Amino acid sequence: MDAKLTLKLNKGVIEKAKAYASNKKMSLSRIIEAYLQTLTSEDENPEFEISPFIKSIATGVEIPSDLDYKKHYSDHLMEKYK
C-alpha cells in the first residue's frame, strides 16, 4: 500500500536528485523508497547498488576534500579496459 510523504529539503539537493533520477530513468520516489528500504532492511541483496558517495552520507564517513576524482576515475577506466 502506497502512502504519501512530504519532505523539506534543500532546493539544490532536490534539483540534483531529480537529475540523478532522470539519468537513471527512475522516479525520485522509487530511488528514495529503495534507499530507505536498504537502510531498514537486513537483506544483503538490494534491488540496485547504492553508490559509495550515498553510502558515505549514510554512514557519516567523509569523502576526503583532497580526493582527486579525475585520477580515481581514470584509474578505474584503465583497470576496466585492460
Automatic annotation (TrEMBL):
Identification of the protein by name: Antitoxin
UniProt source species: Sediminicola luteus
